[in-house]
Amino acid sequence: MSDAAAILLAVSTAGGAIAALPVSLPVALVVVALAFVRRSPVVLCLGAALLASGCSARAWAGLRPAPPRPWTGVATLVSDPGNAYGAVRVDLRLGPRRVEAWARGAPAGRLRDRLAGERVSVAGRLEPLPSRVRDRLARRQ
Length: 141
Description:
The chain is α+β, with helices and mostly antiparallel strands. The chain is built from 5 helices and 5 strands.
């Protein structure tokens, strides 16, 4: 495979993952197998794009927001707190879950001078994010 074909393969795979179209995985695997049998870099690029797109769509479909509920416990700051729209915004690790937290008033004042890696006691409410925010945060991670 030439350097140009390798670059095209990488670009087509990334494009398929970004598109996240619900492609049948068996169909994508057949196209990849056909590419190896025919030794066709173009068909391989198409198969890789289909496979990445199908896997990406399955990953997005597997994201299920937790139902709204109160939460109290110790959390680890994943990022330094920052000011945003009159509040303090910070990323927290709650066990295996990573969440974006917002604080206002006295809690914001206590949180503002903390640093990433510190552990803090938190009480609040976990809620699903609007889809536009969820997409921004998923791509940022």
